[in-house]
Write a structure and sequence with these properties.
Blueprint lengths: L1 H12 L4 H10 L11 H11 L4 H18 L3 H4 L5 H5 L5 H15 L5 H5 L3 H9 L6 H11 L11 H14 L3 H7 L4 H14 L3
């Protein structure tokens, strides 16, 4: 599938978006890698990542896992009011703490579960996840991309994607809407290429 998609991206960009064509060539074949975590853990990590640099989010995540190990509890057991101060000491804001505790409550009430998300469409994921406190469009997109591995997801709320897309459309003399529509139904792959190009300094 990834090889087929890569060839399709090259075919679509070769005579229309030369800068993206070079990016696709440079990056090579990209696959959508499913998360190694269960749904609760993945979403908990999303909370830690929101509006933070990768490095800062990773530091907080490591502290939370160390706390769980120290307390001999799983991550879900940590997410309650009695643990607020210790979680806050890991670097979490009040809003992130509120989101974590609300997430545990939603799982306890079966308002969200592994099966409901794994079998959901993007629209269904949006309905389920957006009901949870602290989870917005960016979180919905990340779950759809990396937990459900849906191939045609784009996140307007991701700062890197938003910034790089503006630069790309200026180079390609097109509009954001036209460019994104051109790569339907493979916009997740487009996002992965842009993230990889940003991280490597190619774009």
């Amino acid at each position: 599938m990834s090889k087929k998609v890569h060839q399709e991206l090259l075919n679509r960009s070769k005579n229309t978006h030369t800068n993206l064509f070079r990016l696709f060539q440079h990056n090579g074949i990209i696959t959508i890698e499913p998360s190694e975590y269960d749904l609760f853990t993945y979403m908990l990590r999303l909370v830690c990542s929101q509006q933070l640099s990768t490095k800062a989010a990773e530091t907080i995540w490591q502290r939370i896992n160390f706390l769980a190990k120290e307390k001999k509890q799983n991550l879900m057991s940590l997410c309650h009011d009695d643990m607020k101060e210790e979680l806050k000491a890991c670097g979490l804001s009040d809003n992130k703490l509120k989101a974590m505790i609300a997430l545990k409550s939603a799982f306890d009430k079966n308002e969200i579960n592994e099966n409901s998300i794994k079998t959901a469409t993007h629209d269904q994921i949006e309905i389920i996840v957006s009901k949870l406190w602290g989870f917005g469009p960016w979180s919905v997109a990340m779950i759809a991309m990396f937990y459900c591995c849906l191939p045609d997801i784009w996140s307007d709320k991701d700062l890197i994607l938003r910034t790089r897309l503006k630069e790309i459309v200026e180079l390609e003399t097109t509009t954001e809407r036209e460019l994104l529509e051109h790569y339907i139904p493979y916009r997740t792959y487009l996002a992965l290429h842009i993230w990889k190009g940003n991280n490597s300094g190619i774009i």
